[in-house]
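note to self — DONT lose this again. spent like an hour looking for the file last time. sequence + predicted structure for the chain T wanted, 393 res
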Amino acid sequence: MIPFDLCSPETGESLKADTPHSLREVKSGVRWPVIDGIPYLRTNRADLVAHTLKLLDAGETNLALEGLLADQDDWWTGPPADPLDLHELVRERDARSLRDAVRLLGWGRVGDYFLHRWTDPTFLAGLTLLEAHWNDPVCVFEFACGIGQYLREFQTRGIKVAGADVVFAKLWVARHWVVGKSAQLVCFDAGSPHWPIPQAPVDLVVCNDAFYFLDRKAEVLESLRQNAGDDGWLAISHIHNSDRPGFSAGRAVSAAEIDELFPDGLVYDDDDLTRALVERRAPHPRSPHDLQGVEAFSVVAGPGMRPAPRAVIDGISVPRPGKTLRLNPLYGGAGGHHAIAWPSERYEAEYASRATYPAAFDGPATLLWQGDLDAPDATQVRNRTYVDLPERW
């Protein structure tokens, strides 16, 4: 765990442990709730914060947790979670799967993306970006980490990790189904008056498939640069291009804005990163102005980045040896023959043309991966026909 020193998102005052379930501002005494080791530091939620603390102080931890699990971000357009489903999930969380959690939280089509993120081309593009510039970081912070897929990849390599997200439920799912207790997780808004982790220099700062949602991109980017310190670097992937309509909401940016935001950056076409993984080559950085037609940009920046990309062969883009991999859960079928069954028409429209795995496959349901990159099954590992999923997926 990375021991971040936290501060109030409203006043900037230092936060110190108050009780096992709360933090207190040093000067003002204002308190903030903590559940499962996850501080809830969202602004514009005063009533929810007060109610949560009241329940926690009264020993009603599960009821307090249910209230935070119902909280969503401002982009959410789906119906609110069913209170009975949340009650069931909290009560039975140790016996439930990740699929159960996503369903009971009411995440709908967004849940499809979380469950299958380990195999989607944008996730693989982010891994490629990281591997191409990898320099053996010791501590990694992921902003907008979701349920922690990237954090898990870092953990398997012995790296200390921390993650932040605006949705408490995502961090809670990360804690119980994906990354366990060793990750430092914090819930806060990017637009808070004060960045809650101001003095937290790490070796690497990651943000994937989220930067385009931000309103105050330049300010948030400056905070992330401060987190990376004088020697760290940033990997920010899948930033939607405003000049090309896409599937996601958010506030996409243009090539010119990428150039302005990242004067020290190496910029990539997200699709080229995915292809580089399958083709076992180095991705090709290009001028932002040569990428005006791409769907999404990816960028590395900062003093600690490698000056040139290396070939994507044997790093974080492939699982650790000794893992028992499972067949990509998008495959359906029996008797050893499997065909892709897309979870939704939207998911298919977004990813089918860029999928790295074949539409049909004949083979067993599991594979013991020994790490031999020249073995016949290495292609199926690299293209995510087989995937390293959490135990309780």
